[in-house]
Design goal:
This protein is of the alpha/beta class. The chain folds into three domains: 4-142 and 272-333, FAD/NAD(P)-binding domain, CATH 3.50.50; 158-269, 3-Layer(bba) Sandwich (FAD/NAD(P)-binding domain); 347-456, 2-Layer Sandwich (Enolase-like, domain 1). Helix content is 32%, strand content 25%. The longest helix has 25 residues, at 81-105. The chain starts with a strand and ends in an 8-residue tail after the last helix. The mean pLDDT is 97. It binds 1,4-dihydronicotinamide adenine dinucleotide. 1,4-dihydronicotinamide adenine dinucleotide (NAI) binds next to helix 6, strand 10, strand 12 and strand 18.
């Protein structure tokens, strides 16, 4: 008889959530994790530590910019970098220990070490091999190399997102290669700490895939905050000399060559599925042409008894997408009907202001030739936002022209990452924009801007 019903490889948000739900549903469960602490990239070197640094530096920005305006005079805080790093580490520790506690509470075994799959039904960890009914691969992703460029991450002068979270000192200047989520979040952190940050982005605008109007406003606001942008530029080489980096890039419009010298380079041009060492080749597992594990609707791989979720399969590389897949798969393995609605997965960029989205963009609707209406509302018309110096940005709600059903929402503004969820819930219930518009929202809250955007899809907003 198998020792376990389920063994999950990887304890990131996909793996640990899947494990907890499996255990709750009565399956004997173990998780393989080779890192010293549970929680994967997200808790150890991703979402959680970056949010600690974003929170601390945003507090600094407020103290510098809005405190005097509110009559809070006195010494602006100075930065104690080792203490900020200690606060970040404490945040990580609390979260990773929290997962360890949840594993104990749910009687989930932590098989410490790096796992591989010698054959279906068996997982090898170190010298030990465990028999199991179902194997779940939740091994996450790694930093992808910059396409077509000679860039070696040395962890000191040229860093990836992990290195950028723990720089020994605050650099005077930094180039961020890639104007995506990681580049802009960590670029914001260092910009607020006084680093001169230049973002070099291959495309003509930042955050590809984002609603174009939001992306444009976002770039304008970040530029005002001091970040510099070089767009439509391909980085070809990074050379390190005498403790500095020289970045060579070409502008795509005229192929002209340029270079720039800085203290630190952050490479943030995307991530790739992490499947090395699992033994997938020997198992003959089918992969997509983008190096992801191919799965069916129930997360089944091409090898019987082996499943995959999260960053190793298709879809956005987001912790919450992996979590939802983890829960759905646990339900499937327990004989229930697990399901993820991929049409309602929010995305958030935790800068200031925040950027959040769910559903389709206006560009996608145009591409589909769909008749739609737009309800827009600026935070300038929101009393709370004005009082808090947070009036930059807007809410844009997209609804079907005929049925009024909500199709998407794009927000740039204060607490956008939290505000977006009322639209997520509305979309899950197949709501119309009128449903949101007729829902009483407390005054004064930022959420009134969401309702005003919904009102703008109908007879019009009140405060615009
Ligand atoms: P990304 O895919 O968000 O952005 C990469 C950017 O680099 C793109 O704008 C791309 O056009 C640009 N690029 C590619 N090659 C380039 C080159 N040679 N020169 C200049 N620019 C180039 O990738 P990122 O920021 O590394 O994030 C990786 C993953 O992690 C993403 O899937 C992201 O969603 C996820 N993530 C999510 C977070 C969140 O939800 N808040 C936070 C951090 C990461």
């Amino acid at each position: 008889m198998a020792q376990y019903d389920v063994i999950i490889i990887g304890s990131g948000p996909g793996g640990y959530v899947c494990a907890i739900r499996c255990a709750q549903l009565g399956l004997k469960t173990a998780v393989v994790e080779g890192r010293e602490t549970l929680g994967g990239t997200c808790l150890n070197i991703g979402c959680i530590p970056s949010k600690a640094l974003l929170h601390a530096t945003e507090a600094l920005r407020e103290a510098e910019t809005t405190f005097p305006k509110m009559g809070l005079k006195g010494k602006t805080p100075s930065v104690d970098w080792p203490q900020m790093q200690a606060y970040k580490q404490d945040t990580i520790d609390q979260n990773t220990k929290g997962i360890e506690f949840l594993f104990k509470k749910n009687k989930i075994d932590w098989l410490k070490g790096w796992g591989s799959i010698p054959e279906a039904g068996r997982v090898k960890v170190g010298e030990e091999t465990h028999d199991v009914k179902h194997i779940v691969i939740a091994s996450g992703s790694d930093v992808a190399p910059v396409p077509g460029a000679a860039i070696e991450v040395d962890g000191k002068i040229v860093v990836d997102s992990e290195g950028a979270l723990s720089l020994p000192k605050i650099p005077r200047s930094m180039v961020v290669v890639g104007g995506g989520v990681i580049g802009l979040e960590l670029g914001s952190v260092y910009s607020r700490l006084g680093t001169e940050v230049t973002v070099i982005e291959f495309l003509d605008g930042i955050t590809p895939g984002q609603d174009a109007e939001v992306a444009k406003t976002f770039q304008r606001i970040l530029s005002r905050q001091g970040l510099k942008f070089i767009t439509g530029a391909a980085v070809s080489e990074v050379e390190t000399k005498n403790g500095k980096a020289e970045i060579a890039y070409k502008l795509r419009k005229d192929d002209s060559a340029h270079d720039i010298k800085v203290d630190v380079v952050l490479v943030a041009t995307g991530r790739k599925p992490h499947t090395a060492g699992l033994g997938l080749d020997a198992l003959g597992m089918s992969m997509t042409n983008r190096g992801q594990i191919a799965v069916d609707d129930g997360y089944k791989t091409s090898v019987e008894g082996i499943y995959a979720i999260g960053d190793v399969i298709e879809g956005p590389m987001l912790a919450h997408k992996a979590e939802d897949e983890g829960m759905a798969l646990a339900e499937i393995l327990a004989g229930q009907a697990g399901h993820v609605n991929y049409g309602v997965i929010p995305g958030v960029i935790y800068t200031h202001p925040e950027v959040a989205n769910v559903g389709l963009t206006e560009e996608q609707l145009k591409e589909q030739g769909r008749a739609y209406k737009v309800g827009k509302f600026s935070f300038m018309g929101n009393g709370r936002a004005k009082a808090n110096f947070n009036a930059d940005g807007f809410v844009k709600l997209l609804a079907d022209k005929e049925t009024d059903r909500i199709l998407g929402c794009h927000v740039i503004g204060p607490m956008a990452g939290d505000l977006i969820h009322e639209v997520c819930v509305a979309m899950e219930f197949g709501a119309a924009s009128e449903d949101l518009a007729r829902t009483c929202h407390a005054h004064p809250t930022y959420s009134e801007a969401m309702r005003e955007a919904a009102l703008a899809c109908g007879d019009g907003p009140i405060h615009a």
